[in-house]
Amino acid sequence: MRISGFLALLLFIQGGVAMASDIYVTVGVKDAEIIGRTNKALQAAVDYVAALGGGTVEIGPGEYWMENSLHLRSNVTVRGQDEATVLKKCDGLVAPLILDGDYGEEQFTVADPSGFKVGMGVSVFDDDAGGFHTVVATIIAADGNTFRIDKPILADCMVRRNARAQTTFPVISGYYIENARVENLTVDGNGDKNPYLNGCRGAGIFLYRAHGTHIAGCTTRNYHGDGISFQQSNDVVVEDCVSYDNTHLGLHPGSGSQRPTIRRCRSYRNNLGLFLCWRVKNGVFEENELFENATFGISIGHKDTDNLFRKNVIRSNRRYGVYFRNESEAMAGHRNRFEENVIEDNGNPEEGAGVVIDGETHDITFVQNTITDTRPEGEKMQRYGVWIKEKASRVTLTGNQIRGNIESTMRNDASPESVTVE
């Protein structure tokens, strides 16, 4: 059922029978209920539907110029027209602060205010305030070269530590929401004309405490940072998405995100394909393709435990296919299971391996995987199928096909009893 915006509002006001799932609003460059080609038109549609309790915003074909994030709302589906709907980030700029940005302060002052304006997205940080200490906010007022923002600064950003403001933000952003959905659209990060924004606060699509969000059929490309990142967000599903040519991480679940599902996605030509950040637990990662990334196909580390990796293809990454990071026993990525994956043709002329298990990592299981280098002799770069380092333990390899690697099927630097091969 499709109902016009006016009728939806009338029914809502009169206590009518329209359900939230019935609310449907179109936005586009033409032939839509809300006409526009910037983030303002898109946000107006999303906020309107959210105010009615939820529903669907359909974005028509065209390129939309994003001077701030499209902020997702609970129970609202945002749907595009696949590659025909492109949300492109505006050109970025950077300006040094001339006054310290103090913790909790909700404004910043720059020497040159050119390019900053009310309604624009902005991030504020210094050389010591990376990660979650970067604030990403909206400019809500201007007084000369001082700009007020809608969120407090999250660390002391000191002029002596290169404090700066820059117009960087996620193209699509969801904070403190539930059950949002993004479908069938393309995000272009315009990375050549933007400075870097770290993946704990930004990406082409970024979620923070956005539980139950579903991202399907989306493309994120050319973002100066991560493609898709979600932090402290439980039960997120990312499926049938493509993330490529981003300067950092293609897919980045992290910071305590529980029970993520990432399936049938392709992540390639990023710095790293799939990065499990900190405390990613009980996730399912299946039928993904992770290839031609500059370092690893998959990286697992800090308290990333009890995850299942099944039927993925991890190939032609320029260092290792799968890397368990060097963590202490208390912090390592234990009890992860790999089933029926293809891990092939990874490495560079200096180093390469299909799987590297580093740190005091234990209870890792590989079952019925193919770990190989298929390239001709003289072109192979995957030196070992599996490399188990000194402090790892309780690694089980069952029914795997490991062949074609330069030096050996397996290099075990741990104690012999730490590894079981069947």
Short note summarizing the structure:
The chain has 422 residues and is mainly beta. 5% of the residues lie in helices and 41% in strands. It is globular and about 70 Å long.
Task: Compute the number of helices.
Answer: 2
Helix content: under 10%
Query: How does the overall form come out from the CA principal axes?
Result: globular
In total, the number of strands is 42
Question: What is the first-to-last residue Cα distance?
Answer: 57 Å
Order of the strands making up the biggest sheet: 2-1-3-6-15-18-21-24-27-30-33-36-39-42
Q: Beta-strand percentage? A: 35-45%
Largest sheet: 14 strands, parallel
Radius of gyration: 23 Å
Which oligomerization state do the chains in this entry correspond to? single chain
The whole-number mean of residue pLDDT values reads: 95
Helix-strand makeup class: mainly beta
**Uncertain segments of ≥5 residues (pLDDT<50)?**
1-18
